[in-house]
Here is the input.
Amino acid sequence: MIIIKSPAELDAMREANRVVARVLAEVVAAVKPGATTAQLDAMAEEMCRAMGAVPGFKGYHGYPYSLCCSPNEQVVHGFPSDDPLQEGDILSMDFGAVLEGFNGDAATTVAVGQISDEASRLMQATEAALVAGIEHCRPGRRLGDLSAAVQKVAEGAGFSVVRQFVGHGIGRDLHEEPQVPNFGSPGRGVELKPGMVLAIEPMVNAGGAEVEILADGWTAVTADGKLSAHFEHTVAVTDDGPRILSLP
Here is the structure.
């Protein structure tokens, strides 16, 4: 069942997502060669709790951390570690927060120092794919319009979209209906209506779309070992067009 949010609920979700945005801004600013993702995770949790929210991912289905940290060939759900980040890495970070019963969720990929041209193009294409998807968060559009737009931008840049993981509805629960694939056909799928809230999150690989799960049961990596990038916003469908809730 797709849950339509009231204007008051959208405002509450905006506050939860503002926490997410502020936390991500802080951890992004701390990314540099020599920093560790364990340090970033601790920073994210401390800041989240200081703002009166609870980390949304910690303990969710047993995930043991607050900040998903996925460097280089890791796609999503990576574990923070004490290994120092290296010049030339890219790092995807996904963070969620719960405030007053509502979830916020967003992700970004950042450069660690100077990165390769391919890594830069991958990040740019993935973020552009997200922007293209958000543009279709309008009443009367179909979910397939959004999904096809993401796919077109990513594949048009010479990359591949991950199919094993998708975006999702979001609200009082972190994962609600509908699922939001990053591939699809225009004109198909659920009709978008005011009050729907979607977590749109392209995961785009430099090589093939296939992924594998590591022995920890969480970390997804590209099957061919090539780079992956991940960007995400929580977006409300409104009569006035897309409302990005997870902006600072």
